[in-house]
Structures are given as structure tokens and as C-alpha cells.
Known about the structure:
This protein is mainly beta. The protein is about 10% helix and about 35% strand. The chain contains three helices and 24 strands. The strands form six sheets. The chain has a four-stranded antiparallel sheet with strand order 1-24-23-22, with no helix packed on it. A hairpin with a 2-residue loop joins strand 3 and strand 4.
Amino acid sequence: xxxxxxxxxxxxxxxxxxxxxxxxxxxxxxxxxxxxxxxxxxxxxxxxxxxxxxxxxxxxxxxxxxxxxxxxxxxxxxxxxxxxxxxxxxxxxxxxxxxxxxxxxxxxxxxxxxxxxxxxxxxxxxxxxxxxxxxxxxxxxxxxxxxxxxxxxxxxxxxxxxxxxxxxxxxxxxxxxxxxxxxxxxxxxxxxxxxxxxxxxxxxxxxxxxxxxxxxxxxxxxxxxxxxxxxxxxxxxxxxxxxxxxxxxxxxxxxxxxxxxxxxxxxxxxxxxxxxxxxxxxxxxxxxxxxxxxxxxxxxxxxxxxxxxxxxxxxxxxxxxxxxxxxxxxxxxxxxxx
Length: 338
């Protein structure tokens, strides 16, 4: 009996010690548990998604629904026709928004450009595919390698500029696909500069005077280049405020109107805006709520934004590819900007 009492006593002692240890551990965990951040430290961009209605000077003017999976890219042809592409298909619309042609593709292009002669150039990840105006493939250009990622093409009568986001360079070709130059965005004023491309968004286009502009997305602005790769002009607007560009890399797409005004598309905060030639924001085309984009996307580096491309047609209407809706949204002015 005495042995049993001693054994019971020991079990009681060890049980008490175990309980005390557990309590102490719980105290440490409670003490070391991180406190919730104060409101001042919570990352919240809700206020920046709100836009004064007086600044929204465009209205919805319909949409194109090409019935193509995974809409990816958009371009305006020299005659004003609209080209929309997605998974293994390209549709051409006339100015009356009626389908004129539908072509089968070998894959999903990341970008489209239509040449003055009606030829079609497709960015197929690491190469350019060339189609005739009839949609028949006539060839492919050089493969840009494992890092190649073509996100934009700009074409005029003599030259083709290809934005390679993977290699962070602009490539200049003649119309037959012979490479004429390679620009990395660096220049004598700042040899540490260059194209900062954190994600696969890197746009290039011509303005209405024929000048070449490239987005430097990681620097939140635009740069104008001469044919030899020299920097001619630049402007940057890094800011979360409405007139600036925020996130890892914005704007993701640009287009110029016939009057020279610049239209920009952003991911994250998901805004479409218009700027004057002297870089002043003139108007908002569409805010996140109008675009129907989840504002939570603004809290991260949203690579897979549903807003895939941007264009401006001959009537200065703004067209936006919305992959989630499977449509091209069309916006027109409520009041004249210029």
C-alpha cells in the first residue's frame, strides 16, 4: 500500500509539473503572438480605387464578343477594322462591329500588329508569326530563345519594333524580318538605367507623328526612342495617386489618339486614363468598378490581370480586352477632351 501511495504521489507530482510546463508554454505563445497591426499599417488601397465621377468623361458604348477562349490581344488595322485574338483564333471586325473574317491560329498570341499593307504580325511568345491580309501564315521570324517573351509589336511602312519582356529589350526589324537593332534602354546619361520589366508587360507603339514610344513599366513611365536606339524624351509618374502609376509595373498598355492624346491601361488598380502631350491627366475612361475588376487585385502584383490589351480606333473610342467577360469593352467620350 505504501508503495502504491508513493507511486500515486509521483504521478501527481509529474502531472502537476506537466500542467505547469504546458501553462508556461501557453503563456510564452500568448506573449509572443504578434499583435494585429494598427489601421495605419494595414495595406488598404480602397480609397485609391474610388474616382470622382466628374473626372470620368467616357461612357460605355457597347462591346465585341468574338466567342474565343482566353482573349489575349487587340489591334486596329489601317482601314479601321478591329482585330481580336485569343486561343487559336483571330477575328476581324468592320467599323460597323460586324464580323468580317475569322482565322485559325497555331496558338494564342500575346500581341497583334497590323501593317499598313494589311499584313498581320503575331507575337507568339518567343517568335513573330507573319500572316497575309487573308489570314494565311507566310512565315516566322527568328526564335528569341528560352527567355523570349514578346508582349508588343509596332509596325510602320519600313520597320517593325518588337518588345521582348523576357530579355528586356526592344528589337528593330525590317518588314522582311531582318534584325536591324537591339535597344536595352541604357544611355550615356545613366548607364545603370534600362528597361525595368518585372512582369510580362512591356508595350511599344507609334504616336500620330510616327515617333516610337516604349513603356518602361518598372519606372512607371514612357520613353521615346530614335531609330538608332537613342533616347529622345521620357517622362515618369510613380505614384499611387490617380494621375500616377503604382504597383510593380505600370502602365501595362498604351495607345495614342488621332489628336495626340495618350491613353493608358493599368493593372492592379485597373484604371484607364487619358493624358495630354505635356503629361497632364485629362480624364478617366474607366475606374475599377466600371471595368468590373475585383479591387483585391490591387493588393498584389497581379500578373494575370483580366484586362489584357488596349487600343484606340479611328473615332477615338477606347477598346479594352476583358478576358473574364470574353469581350472587348468599348468606351466613347461623353464630352470633348480636345
